[in-house]
């Protein structure tokens, strides 16, 4: 196990650097965000998630909670890959909640 993996298991927070414009104007490209892994997702939360049919981690806002998962969308509708085209995400696909823009 690498040191980074070990530390990430001990600490419930991770810092990500944003790549892309999908969450503008709330979060801009190049911003650093603090992600908390332990939380209860609710509508309106900005979360770090992954889609089963797309590589990478995405920052999206929870727009709706369904019986089977979550619909997540980018604030910048014109420049966002999200649930409108990639489908909903499960709770396991949500890696954490954005708690601060640094």
CA distance, first residue to last residue: 28 Å
Overall geometry: globular
* Fraction in beta strands: 35-45%
Task: Name the CATH superfamily assignment.
Answer: Umud Fragment, subunit A
Q: Indicate the percent of residues in helices.
A: 10-25%
Strand order of the largest sheet: 1-2-6-3-4-5
Classify the fold: give the CATH topology: Umud Fragment, subunit A
Cα Rg:
13 Å
Q: From N to C, what is the helix and strand string?
A: HEEEEEHE
Strand elements, count: 6
- Provide the domain count: 1
Instruction: Extract low-pLDDT stretches.
Output: none
- Structural class category: mainly beta
Q: Indicate the CATH architecture.
A: Ribbon
Total of DSSP H or I helical runs spanning 4+ residues:
2
Round the mean pLDDT to the nearest integer and report it.
90
Could you characterize the architecture of this molecule?
- The mean pLDDT is 90.
- The chain has helices at 3-10, 83-86; strands at residues 13-17, 32-36, 46-51, 54-65, 70-73, 94-101.
- By secondary structure, the protein is mainly beta.
- It is built from 2 helices and 6 strands; from the N terminus they run αβββββαβ.
- The chain has one domain: Umud Fragment, subunit A (Ribbon).
- A hairpin with a 4-residue loop joins strand 4 (54-65) and strand 5.
